[in-house]
Amino acid sequence: MNANTKRWPFVTEIVMILLALLFLSPFYFLLANSVKSFGEILKNAASWPSEFVWSNYSKAWELARFSEAFRNSIIITIISVLLIALFSAMAAYRMVRADNWFNRLLLLLFVAAMVVPFQTIMIPILKTVNVLGVNNTIAGLIICNLGLSIPMAIFLFHGFIKSVPLEIEEAATVDGCNPVTVFFRIVLPLLKPMLMTIIVLNALGIWNDYLLPSLILQAPNLRTIPLATFSFFGQYTKQWDMALPALTLGVAPIVIFYLFMQRYIVEGIAAGSVKG
User: Fold this and answer.
1) CB 229 within 8 A of CB 243
2) Which of 92, 196, 197, 221 is the most exposed place for a label (fewest CB within 10 A)?
């Protein structure tokens, strides 16, 4: 092994460290400036705080009515994610096991829906929400989340379910299980890697979403965390000393959730690459 061959792993490691620092730099700016005074942020946003102003967090919590926003985000995210995972898994299972022209066409329509930009359907969504009478409600936002997220989830489940051996289901049917029992007790546990992947990805997207909640929710008591954080940015003034602590409080739960669940994403990718 020559010197150049030995040098490449070291160079690669250095490059990866530099890239990691680059991607982590926004977290430094966020955390460092969240405990600065407004004047110090404007003076030098890149410097280390000369004095830690921890009261920024308590003020931001009160001004943004963060307890309400946190509750709303939790309710919307949990209900939306669970319904997306359950409905898409059941739909994909039926489409795979009843392989006919109608289900193939239905899958094609779901795939086509994945490539439609959200900006092109904003106005139809608002009109539909108004017709249903669920505008400015958490239920209306959850319904919209289902409609926008289920196509991708069905597509992912559809490919994964094909790798589930049909013989297992046939054996359960012989033992007396009905189709509902076969799905929930046999098939669904086998879908755990993909199920967890879909839960994590949709939780990240729904928790951090700003555009859709801003269109559906107008009442101050229904604001989610992104909407509450945006309230510190006015037309002429930007309250950075309040917005950054609020942003930190909003990001922290979903980052912790992702760090705890990221192994399931790896398992889902690995299982999908080995099976089928």
Assistant:
1) yes
2) 221
Tell me how many domains the chain contains. Answer: 1
Burial of residue 178 (CB within 10 Å: 0-12, 13-18, 19+) is exposed
Give the whole-angstrom CA distance, residue 253 versus residue 17. 26
Domain presence at residue 53: no
What range defines the domain where residue 192 resides? 66-225+235-274
In tens digits, what is the pLDDT along the chain, a chain of 276 residues? 555 555 667 778 888 888 888 888 888 888 888 888 888 888 888 888 888 888 889 888 888 888 899 999 999 999 999 999 999 999 999 999 888 889 899 999 998 888 888 888 888 888 989 888 888 899 999 999 999 999 999 998 988 888 888 888 888 888 888 888 888 888 888 888 889 889 998 999 999 999 999 989 888 889 999 998 888 876 556 788 888 898 888 888 888 888 888 777 666 655 554 444
Torsion angle (degrees, nearest 10) of CA 24, 29, 30, 31: 90
- Is residue 45 domain-resident? no
Amino acid at 1: M
């094909």: which residue's tokens? 162
Supply angle C-alpha 179, 181, 187, rounded to 5.
85
Which helix (H) or strand (E) element contains residue 246? helix 240-274
CA distance 93 to 139: 26
Rg (CA), the chain: 23
